[in-house]
Design brief:
Helix content: 25-40%
Number of strands: 6
Radius of gyration: 22 Å
Distance between the termini: 79 Å
Structural class: alpha+beta
Number of helices: 5
Order of helices and strands: HHEEEEHEEHH
CATH architecture of the largest domain: 2-Layer Sandwich
Number of domains: 2
Keywords: Membrane, Transmembrane, Transmembrane helix
Strand order of the largest sheet: 4-3-2-1-5-6
CATH class of the largest domain: Alpha Beta
Largest sheet: 6 strands, antiparallel
Strand content: 15-25%
Length: about 190
Amino acid sequence: MKRDDWMLLSLTFLTGLAIGMYVYLMAFKPIYVPDNLNDTETEAGEWSLVAKRYSDGSSRYVEPSFRVLSDRSYVYLPGGNSDSALSPIEGKLSSGLMRDLREYDDELVAYIYPPLQPNCPSARGGYDYEYRITVDNTVYLLDTCETALGQSSELAVLLQEAWSELEGSGRPTGSFSDWAENWLNERIGVN
C-alpha cells in the first residue's frame, strides 16, 4: 500500500469515529434524572413529594423534576439542554402552598386509580406529570395521564401551582406574612 492509501484509510476511520460519537451523544446517550435527589429517607418517610414532568419521548432534553420534604425545603432540577439542566436549585416552598398540599394527605388514595377516560397531553406533544407522594411511609403514585388525578382536579391544580412557584412564576413569596413566619422560625425555631 502506498502512502496515499494509508492516508485515505486513516482519514476514513477518523471520520467514521467522529460521526459515530456524534450520533451516540445526540441520539443514544441515556438521559439521567435521579429519582432520589438526596438520600434523606428518614425525612422523606414522614412526608415528601417527588414530581417529574414528561412528554412523548421525542425530546432529548432533560425534563424538570423536584422534591419537597415535610420541612418545606425543596430541590428543583430545571431540566433543559444546557449545562445547568441538572444543577439543583434549593429553597423553601411557601407555607400557604405547603399547608394546602398537606390538606390532601387523607384523600390521596382516591387519586391512585386509573381514569375512566384517560386524557394524555403527552401523547399529543404536550406534558404530563408524575408524582410520588409519601405520607407516613406510604407511597402514593399519581400521574396526570395514568391515574384519576387528571389535569383539572383540585389536587392537580394545586400541584401545578407548586410547579409554577418553583419555576418562579407562582404565588408571591415576598409577602409580609411569609417574611414574619420565616423570621419567627429563625429566631424561635418553630416550624
